[in-house]
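Worked example 3 (structure in, sequence out).
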């Protein structure tokens, strides 16, 4: 397990083993790489980040991940795989499950109030984009990207 302080000063625990945290995950993130580019969404307040969000009532984590990717980018996913979890020690501790997925297709969508579009970014752009969301710049994101490189065969 990796423990670090995020850019907002909160302790974060990252694990690549399932079920390490006592807090049930209620949020998801999805890493998707297609034709050597990462799928990202443009959040109007936070900036460029990987798609993700909160579970809706009655949803599984997998259903939330599929829905969030589509709502934020218009991309359909396949082969969704559990990848990691992290817990953020905020006033109310919360946990996110991180998935990987493969590209299955894309539709044109109208973006909502929260997001203003999507991007496909190369590795270099993904790391150095000038408008990255705060959580895309922390130690946990770097560690997840390192781990994904080790699993590069699926990408």
């Amino acid at each position: 397990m990796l423990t670090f302080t995020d850019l907002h000063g909160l302790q974060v625990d990252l694990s690549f083993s399932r079920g390490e945290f006592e807090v049930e995950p209620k949020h998801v993130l999805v890493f998707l790489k297609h034709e050597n580019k990462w799928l990202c969404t443009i959040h109007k307040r936070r900036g460029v980040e990987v798609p993700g969000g909160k579970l809706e009532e009655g949803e599984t984590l997998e259903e939330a991940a599929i829905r969030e990717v589509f709502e934020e980018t218009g991309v359909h996913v396949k082969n969704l795989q559990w990848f990691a979890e992290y817990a953020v020690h905020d006033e109310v501790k919360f946990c996110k499950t991180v998935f990987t997925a493969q590209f299955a297709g894309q539709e044109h969508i109208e973006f909502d109030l929260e997001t203003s579009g999507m991007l496909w970014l190369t590795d270099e752009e993904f790391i150095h984009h000038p408008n990255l969301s705060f959580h895309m710049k922390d130690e946990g994101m770097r560690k997840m990207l390192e781990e994904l490189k080790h699993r590069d065969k699926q990408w």
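Notes: Strands lie at 2-5, 11-15, 27-34, 37-43, 47-49, 52-54, 75-88, 94-106, 115-121. Helices lie at 61-73, 123-128, 139-150.
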